[in-house]
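sorry for the late reply, my laptop died twice this morning and i had to redo everyting from scratch. anyway the thing you sent over, i finally got around to it. pasting the sequence first so we're on the same page, its 311 residues, then the predicted structure underneath. double check i copied it right bc i was rushing
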Amino acid sequence: MSIHVNTYSIVAFDPQHDQFGVAVQSHWFCVGALVPWAEPGVGAVATQSFVEVSYGPLGLRLMRAGKTAEQALQGLLTSDPQASVRQVAMLDAQGNVAAHTGQHCIAEAGHRLGEYYAVQANLMLKDTVWDAMGEAYECTAGDLAERMLAALDAAQAEGGDIRGVQSAALLVVSAQLEPVPWNGRVFDLRVDDHPQPLVELRRLLAVARAYKHAETASQLLEKRPLDETKIAAAQQEIQLAAQSPEMENNPELLFWQAVDLVAAGQVEAALPLFKRVFEVDPIWRDLIPRLVPAGQLPDDPDLVERILQLA
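ok and here's the structure:
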């Protein structure tokens, strides 16, 4: 059964950051569950218009087996009796791109292929949307997520979907093959229903970046032997996470970074973080005694009391 997901999207490969990705916006609920597909070291797929979702997993399976993006796409189109209403883009592990806009996709509909990317759109207000997307992607600096979001913003600025907006998604994976595929997920963000999905998607990306910094800090503090270089690098990552405006009223990251610092023997560096957490929300103070039997803080009553007195 086809699903009427008329939309605009981009698939792209960033050789500098070694990543594949898909970004999409639509006037359809939960577009992220249907259109974007990507697998580390394999490639990416966007399947839209009158969506046949199987183009996603089957396209990845074919490319995983060694087919190029063009071969995978043509193979699926040949066996699809409704190919004329499909709009699909594929990107393989070598950065080759292929796209198809069926003759019965609802106007305005079209696509553009560039170096390591494809942009595609249907049911647009104007037939200039996909060129605007391509130009924005090519001219924007930053990592893959930032450049793909610039393409979506350009589509919306050009008039976008004639029906308006509802949902959006961003999926970025490593271009390196991973034994465990989920380890290669860089960003997997969805806005399922929102009056300004692209604005919300950018906000979520800022939150995700903060969590990435926190994750890096934790990984550095877990490495043994721990030296001053690792500690300094971890503290820098903690600061980057804390500086995100999206984290101003969310003490979660700072709390666990403080716990990690204590576990690494950096009590003096941890105390200001605990203090800042308690200032945002004192309820976190109640969690401190619970962390001792869980093995997350040392069984040291003096240390526990010292932390609690910061509240």
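Residues 210-308 form one domain.
thats about all i looked at so far, will dig more tmrw
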